[in-house]
Amino acid sequence: MLENLFNLIKEHSTEAVINNPAIPNEKNDAVISDATHSVADGLQGVLAGGGLQAVLSLFNNNNNSSGGNGFLNNPIVSNIISSFTNKLTNNHGIAADQAGGIASSLIPSVLSSLVNRTNDPNNSSFSIGSIISSLAGGGNAPGGSGGLDIGSLVSRFASGSLDANNDGHVGIDDIISKVTGGAQQQQAQSSSGGLMDIISGFMK
């Protein structure tokens, strides 16, 4: 999923990054890498905080009918824009106002495209299951390493194997608990450079 996200951001970076005189050409891939990290880390942080439903809502086309500009009012998107802005200023020495403009232009358009592709049954490059699974540690997420398999979830509801918080009831709170725990584990690994190391491997 991360490589697909990196390539998606690269597709949307022509004006904001590649043709932007504020960004030296030799830094283009590094900036795209930082944008990828900001998106992945931002979504993972929400999942680690128990925000599975907020992420699912972000990927609901009905809630984002206004396209890229509509994302600016979403707190998840605002946090990702802020994170990327900080990376542009701290890692690449870009002035704060320019960095904010780049982030506010690139991130909403990328997320809008990501949501559209995720909801497109004819596009297999992204699925909400694979996104959440990759950010929550694959095997630690419901459905195992293959992602969120709704059919599998239904059968596991029946068997009770999703009672992650041991309250005797299996519901959305149990799914959230599993995803939250997996995302927290992935965050701990990423803090030592894991997530960024993976993304940096896509730079060619």
Keywords, separated by commas or semicolons:
single chain; 63% helix; 0% strand; mainly alpha; 10 helices; 204 residues
What's the gyration radius in Å? 17 Å
Structural domains: how many: 1
Indicate the mean pLDDT.
78
Q: Which range best describes the helical content: under 10%, 10-25%, 25-40%, 40-55%, 55-70% or over 70%?
A: 55-70%
Approximate shape:
globular
Structural class by helix and strand composition: mainly alpha
Described by strand count, sense and barrel closure, the largest sheet is: none
- Indicate the low-confidence ranges by residue numbers: 139-159
How many E-type strands?
0
Q: Tally the helices.
A: 10
User: Could you tell me the strand content as a percent range?
Assistant: under 5%
- Spatial separation of the terminal alpha carbons: 18 Å
Topology pattern, helix = H, strand = E? HHHHHHHHHH
Q: Can you lay out the helices and strands and say which pair or pack?
A:
Layout: H1 2-11, H2 14-18, H3 28-48, H4 52-58, H5 75-92, H6 96-118, H7 128-135, H8 150-159, H9 172-190, H10 194-200
Helix pairs in contact: 1-3, 3-5, 3-9, 3-10, 5-6
